[in-house]
Amino acid sequence: MLELKPMLSALWRNKASALLIALQLALTLAIISNIVVIVQDRIEKIERPTGITVEDIIALNFMAIPQNYDMTGAIAADLELLRALPYVKDATVTNQVPLSQSGSAGTFYTQPNQEIGGENSNYYNTDPHFIDTLGLNLVAGRNFTDAEIQFSDPNESPEIAVALVTQQFAEKLYPGQDPIGKPLFDGSGSNPIEIIGVVERHLGAWVGWSNAGNVAFFPSIKNTQDTNYLIRTEPGKRDQVLKALVQKLSERDPQRVIKTKVLSEYVARSYARDNLMVKVLSIVAAMLSFIVALGIVGLTIFWINQRAKQIGVRRALGATRTNISRYFLLENSLIAGTGIAIGSAAALIVNQSMVRDYSQPELTLMPLAICALLVLLVSLAAALTPAIRAANISPATATRSV
């Protein structure tokens, strides 16, 4: 307490430089705390379970060359061939590849001819093997049967009678209720689609979509010029199967163009921007911390050089090295505390604006407190070496002329 008055007096004499460091710390805290919540939100997003055995799945797209290509017959023959390949657990046909950032979506309702209050959902047209191929977990109801598959031409709208939905989508449609047997309407009319099964999880096509996880599956296959197959292999056998399947399909029917990609590539591409953001923001936070540390080191060394004679006098009067080091660390703590107080208020104000205008995650008190503690530790660590240097000033300095 005896050191506080001369400490405040010294800070007041150097108020411009002290205020500059405090504002630098405040700005650093405001930026880093908001960076932390954004990075945390992106990491949680990247680490969300997909509900799919991503590492074991191959996605294959083929486009038929002849205009009058028999797509229905080709799909049946191809799937029979694929399922018979060594190390293949199952294969399915689908209109879109999951997690690929490309898909189909619509608005679905719980009442016929309803125009408002619907729920947006990604949807897939597929067959009964879709669940096993992707490794989805059926938690209620049953799967499709082969007899329920609707084959149609591109311009036709088949009367689909049944659907599977994700648990998340079912809860939004029928909160707190058993969805099995409940109707689903696609907005095009009064035709009810019965929910016959619920899968635990499936993120869908767009990982960044606000409705990711709302997914419906319909037993429908269209006779278009191109389609997609998903092939699930035994663990560790994906690359081996990948080499064989294109050759086998080309031998069976050379009148098409075949492209393959492993599903993990789609996932990596889908999260590429999130991963880049995490890396860039982490680098920015590290650079800000480094810059503010350099500022504190420079300012503390400048003050020590200015007060070298005073420090020598204190040493001559009996002050220990610990007393001198503690003095400068406490002085630095006062500056840091002021900066942290200003920065905490600024961080919350900036975050409220970001939440309102850019839908960013909300900054809570816990991450703010952790960031404030980290900024304080960086400040003390930066001041430690100059403080030790000040403690080593000899008492003889007091007898030297200025």
Tags for this model:
402 residues, alpha+beta, four-stranded antiparallel sheet, 11 helices, 12 strands
Description:
- This protein has 402 residues and is α+β, with helices and mostly antiparallel strands.
- It has 2 domains: 172 residues, no CATH class; 189 residues, no CATH class.
- The protein has 11 helices and 12 strands.
- A hairpin with an 8-residue loop joins strand 8 and strand 9.
- Helix 2 runs antiparallel to helix 8 and helix 8 packs parallel to helix 11.
- The relative contact order is 0.19.
Task: Provide a compact summary of the structure.
The protein has 402 residues and is of the alpha+beta class. Helices cover 50% and strands 18% of the residues. The longest helix has 38 residues, at 321-358.
Fold blueprint:
Layout: H1 4-13, H2 15-46, E1 57-64, H3 71-84, E2 88-94, E3 104-108, E4 119-126, H4 130-134, E5 138-141, E6 150-152, E7 162-166, H5 167-173, E8 183-184, E9 193-199, E10 215-222, E11 226-233, H6 238-252, E12 256-262, H7 263-270, H8 272-306, H9 308-316, H10 321-358, H11 365-391
Parallel strand pairs: 4-10, 6-10, 7-9
Antiparallel strand pairs: 1-11, 1-12, 2-11, 3-4, 5-9, 7-10, 8-9
Helix pairs in contact: 2-8, 2-10, 2-11, 8-11, 10-11
Transmembrane segments: 20-39, 280-304, 324-351, 363-384
GO molecular function: transmembrane transporter activity
Protein name: ABC transporter permease
